[in-house]
Amino acid sequence: MSNNNVITFSDVLDAKEKISPYVHECPVVTSSTLDKMVGRKVFFKAESFQKTGSFKARGALNAVLSLVAKSPEVHGVVTHSSGNHGQALAWASNMVGLDCTVVVTNNTPKSKCEAIKAYGADLVFCEPTYADRIKICNKISEERSIPYISSSDDYDIMAGQGTIAVEFLNQVPDLDAVIVPVSGGGMAAGIATAAKAIKPAIKGERLWPNPPRFLDSIADGIRVQQLGELTWPIILELVEKEVFSVKDADIVKAMKFVFERMKLVIEPTSAAGVAAVMSERMASMDPGLKNVGVILCGGNVDINHLPWY
Amino acid sequence: MSNNNVITFSDVLDAKEKISPYVHECPVVTSSTLDKMVGRKVFFKAESFQKTGSFKARGALNAVLSLVAKSPEVHGVVTHSSGNHGQALAWASNMVGLDCTVVVTNNTPKSKCEAIKAYGADLVFCEPTYADRIKICNKISEERSIPYISSSDDYDIMAGQGTIAVEFLNQVPDLDAVIVPVSGGGMAAGIATAAKAIKPAIKGERLWPNPPRFLDSIADGIRVQQLGELTWPIILELVEKEVFSVKDADIVKAMKFVFERMKLVIEPTSAAGVAAVMSERMASMDPGLKNVGVILCGGNVDINHLPWY
């Protein structure tokens, strides 16, 4: 590992040992129809089947278990989240007996809000701006003397998300590239760390939705378009300099394809990865990238408000 | 095997050998939330991931392969179908180079009709009555000199569907009962034949939706509420005398549960099995039925017209 990395492959393997008894090894799914369409073999890691409905369970559980080990006196945690990290932290906190408070913007899908409450966490709404989310979260952290657990800019979170890559490369050793939806960069940093350690030649492709500023995409899981201070140097070093931008219309089209043809319920953020692999930009890329992995990061969509209705 | 049975376990094993290279061994999925709700362990055989989106691919392929072996001069086949058998027969015929004509009622979901055409079959619409479907199908069979392949009342079809049970009991050897959606009875007859041979103590539970006459349920795959002449004696002997009737409202509720919590796209007919396992009737049954299997028979729902919109 390079000295510039601040999490190592060994951190990811430690996380895997800690969280494996409680999280699913999610299946890899394929579609021969899609493979024909794009002229490559595409492997989807279906984290939509993960505990709490997204990959975030991995990082949150690793963070909470590490926290309790380091600070046995801790009584609760707080976070702000677009929904999935909130559910995951609520679930993980509940498992280890910590109180949990989650700050969400008031436009967060109802299904995600209800799930957070169902795991026993306190839900606090804020204005739909990133700044307000942070402000309220910091206030609660101070008032209640509970640590803030970032959804991505945290080494334990990154190491937890990196376990996806360990499983994925065990399930499909021949992967040439992995497409990762990016918001804060926790998953991308973790996956890049693990994947480059296991298979140095692998490519990682970041993915950002259009428009280039945040909070205006149906992909509610990746509305925050800003890499974290801790994730940025890792991603800068380890991830390929290839960024896909996908439009909302392409996300909806990809989401419908996965519902109709693959029979999987996924959220728009997962569909962003599918849209990337179906894009013209992907079509123009090196044909040597024969086996492409895509992370279906979550399935927490409000089925009463699907984007094509 | 009893002498009353007109397909044997050996027919099912022969079918398995023939079709296995071309069909999926579909995964078994579980939900800890549902297990807690119903107080049993429930195992779902996700035939929604099968080729053509339903278990019907198994029987159709076995029927077509057997037909070509017996009658090499055959040039085409015809069937009537509520949609899934039509897709399956179109797909299987296309694979072996036969023409295929499918008669469907004019209220068949658009997604199923489009899929039938996409596999290269001719689609013929009829009035939404069972009688008209048969009449038109017979007429085409005579005019074009092509055999009619029943969706269920056919020994090769039954043997093909029976392969589900061979796989399921291999995946979950401890199953105490299997709940099977029934319409014509092809799947129930095949599964009962195989399951009783592998595990004589296993219970099979039939499932019919309310209301008791046909063509008035959202479960379009099981609108025809009449067992076939060939399936009836097999089911009478091998299947438990336990029939669940489920209401459309329960089907919709079960379908939403599977979309929201299990992240699977299923069609209403699959949800009928889920509704049965969630029903009060099931709750009142022998607690010794600890491990209950449910066949998620298909995933071919028109996602532009989901029943809760």
From TrEMBL, chains A, B:
MF-aspect GO terms: ATP binding; D-serine ammonia-lyase activity; L-serine ammonia-lyase activity; magnesium ion binding; pyridoxal phosphate binding; serine racemase activity; threonine racemase activity
Recorded superkingdom: Eukaryota
Protein's recorded name: Serine racemase
Domain Tryptophan synthase beta chain-like PALP intervals: 20-298
Pfam families attached to this UniProt entry: PALP
Gene3D superfamilies membership: 3.40.50.1100
Function: Catalyzes the synthesis of D-serine from L-serine. D-serine is a key coagonist with glutamate at NMDA receptors. Has dehydratase activity towards both L-serine and D-serine.
Keywords associated with the record: Lyase, Magnesium, Pyridoxal phosphate
Source organism of this protein record: Crassostrea virginica
EC number(s) on file: 4.3.1.17, 4.3.1.18, 5.1.1.18
Alphabetized InterPro entries for the sequence: Ser/Thr_deHydtase_PyrdxlP-BS, TrpB-like_PALP, TrpB-like_PALP_sf
Cofactor(s) the protein requires to work: pyridoxal 5'-phosphate; Mg(2+); Mn(2+); Ca(2+)
Family (UniProt): Belongs to the serine/threonine dehydratase family.
BP GO terms, sorted: D-serine biosynthetic process; L-serine metabolic process
Catalytic activity: L-serine = D-serine; L-serine = pyruvate + NH4(+); D-serine = pyruvate + NH4(+)
